[in-house]
Every structure is written in C-alpha cells, then in structure tokens.
Amino acid sequence: DAKTTQPTSMDCAEGRAANLPCNHSTISGNEYVYWYRQIHSQGPQYIIHGLKNNETNEMASLIITEDRKSSTLILPHATLRDTAVYYCIVHAGGTSYGKLTFGQGTILTVHP
Amino acid sequence: DTEVTQTPKHLVMGMTNKKSLKCEQHMGHRAMYWYKQKAKKPPELMFVYSYEKLSINESVPSRFSPECPNSSLLNLHLHALQPEDSALYLCASSQGQGAIYEQYFGPGTRLTVT
What we know:
The structure holds two protein chains of two kinds. By secondary structure, chain A is an all-beta fold. Helix content of chain A is 0%, strand content 45%. In chain A, the strands form two sheets. Chain A has a five-stranded mixed β-sheet, with no helix packed on it. A four-stranded antiparallel β-sheet of chain A has the order 2-7-6-5, with no helix packed on it. Chain B is an all-beta fold. Chain B contains no helices and eleven strands. The interface between A and B is medium-sized, with 25 and 28 residues.
C-alpha cells in the first residue's frame, strides 16, 4: 500500500469546519483512500472512503485532488466529540488484499 | 446495525494461562479481522479470515491461535503469552475482503499479561 503523510496534530474551534490533510503521492490507480478515527480507548470508527471522486456522507466529506496525490477530510461543523486520532489509509487489493495499514494519524483536538 | 461485539472487555492472565477472546457480528459480513494495538501506537493487523478460512497471517507467533467457527464468530485463543503481549485486541468485520469494503471495528479487549 502507498504510504501516507499526515500532520501530527491539529486544533479546531467547536462549530468550525475541520480540514484534515493527507499526502499519498505514490498512490496507485486501484488504491482507495480511507479515513478512520479513533476516540480514546475505543475501537477505530470508519468515516469515509473514495477512489477518484469526492465523496460525502453524514459524517464528513472527502476531497481527492485530480492527480490523487493528496486528499482532505472535512468535518463541516466540528464538535467536542470529534476530538480523536484521524487515520488516512491507502488501501489496495492484490497481495495486501483486505489489509489496513495504519500510520500515526493526526490528533485532532476540538476546543470550546 | 454496524455493531461488532467483543468479550471480555478486560482480561488479566498469567503467562501459563490459556484464555480466549471472542468477537461476534450479525451484519452478514464474510471477512473478519484481528488487530493488536499497543499503547500510543496505531493498530496492527494480525489475521484475516474470509469465508471462514484464514486468508492472511501477519507472521503472528503461534501462542496466538485464531479460529472462525462460523461466519458470525471469530475467536482468538491465547496460550503462554508474554508480558509484552499486553495490548488492546481489536476485532473488525467487512462485507468482503477487498479494498472496496470498509471495516467495522469492535470496542476491543484490553489484555494484561502478568
């Protein structure tokens, strides 16, 4: 799987949009971009994923650049409960079929 | 319903004990996973089962023995563990084994080996 690079930590004010960047410059054509988050002492939670197009669901939006070398996760109105570690993962098929490789992630802290 | 349940929530065991961790899902998913997470580190994949057959073993020591008795259940049998095996053990499931399927995680079992 392609390697991802994320900032170690970010802050966001409650009620504002949180924009979390991720670089994946070596991504291949068949690799998906996934976002998960992990709130302290809980299991990771799936947020969203995409291949080429931008995606939106009830939790977040995923913006993937045209060259697919980077992406941004957008939480439109951050709340204190969104404080968590956010993992950007590039997920491929082939021999790593089904294997999620977590990096260090971004610690997002939402402030009142 | 996207719930994966794990029991027990906490487990303390000695190095000579034998114990088992249990994971259950009722979403009709055909792929199930075990991950290990040490303190302040990201989760690391241990095993993947697809259609009740072991598909991926990430070179996990034999003191960890997975079992998938049916499509809803996944067990992890533990024997002769070491203190360094203390960690949060996470189970996950997905509709299938592939990059297009998101994984849903349980809350984990926090294991302490004494």
